[in-house]
Amino acid sequence: MAVTVTIPTALRQYAGGNARVILAAGSVGQVLAALSEQHPGLGKQLYNDQGALRSFVNVYVGDEDIRHLQGVETAVPDGETVSIIPAIAGG
Predict the structure, then answer these.
(1) What are phi and psi of 48, to 5 degrees?
(2) CA 85 from centroid of its chain's CA atoms
(3) Which of 47, 38, 40, 48 is nearest to 84 (CA)?
(4) How far, in whole angstroms, is CA 89 from its chain's centroid?
(5) What is the 3-state secondary structure (H, E, C) of the chain?
(6) Distance between CA atoms of 15 and 64, rounded to whole angstroms?
C-alpha cells in the first residue's frame, strides 16, 4: 500500500531534487510525517515551530483540499496522490 507525494519545484531542493516520493498509505499527517523523516529540510518548510502545517502550505488528496476534508486526519487511500502546493504571493 503506497501513495505518491508530489513535490513542487520550489521545494524539491529540500527533497533531494525529487519531484515525487512514494510512501506508505495512511492519513495525510502520517504521510507528511514520513516525508519529513526522510527529508528533514522539507519538514522545516512544511511545519512551523509548533508542529502545525504552515499557513501557506496547501495539501491536496487527489483534487480535494484537506482543509475541506478532515485536515491532517484525512485518509489517503492506496494509490492516491498527495500534492503539496505552496501559496504564491504576488504584488
Answers:
(1) -85, 180
(2) 8
(3) 47
(4) 19
(5) CEEEEECCHHHHHHCCCCCEEEEECEEHHHHHHHHHHHCHHHHHHHECCCCCECCCEEEEECCEEHHHCCHHHCEECCCCEEEEEECCCCC
(6) 23
d(CA 85, CA 20) in angstroms, rounded, equals 13
pLDDT digits (tens, 9 = 90+) for 1-60: 899 999 999 999 999 999 999 999 999 999 999 999 999 999 999 999 999 999 899 999
pTM of the prediction? 0.92
Strand partners, 21: 5
Cβ contact 66:37 at 8 Å: no
Grid cell 527533497 — which residue?
15
